[in-house]
Design a protein that fits this description.
This protein is mostly beta strands. Helices cover 0% and strands 50% of the residues. It is globular.
Amino acid sequence: QVQLVESGGGMVQAGGSLRLSCAASGFNLEHYHIGWFRQAPGKEREGVSRISSGGGNTYYEDSVKGRFTISRDNVKNMVYLQMNSLKPEDTAVYYCARTMWAGTYSPSVYDMWGQGTQVTVSS
């Protein structure tokens, strides 16, 4: 199947870490910009981080700067989101998505989404 699949979510205590993975199947990620999004209970989906196709440019929302790191390995067809110093407000379903258009979290420019992986941070 042609798809994106997230993994690595789980339940951790505040201050803990998780590493999310986004695996591409049926196509090569190397020509796509990848965004990580999350949707917390009772809130709208928001962009968290983005990475350019070659990995040279990364972007973070203010709420996660200094705590999250996005990276990619185009040989392995994978994108990662390392999440450190997790807070209860990070609790959400996390999604990865692909786009050929850089510079925005607008859902309209992302043409493929993963199924999401749940991250729960307890206090």
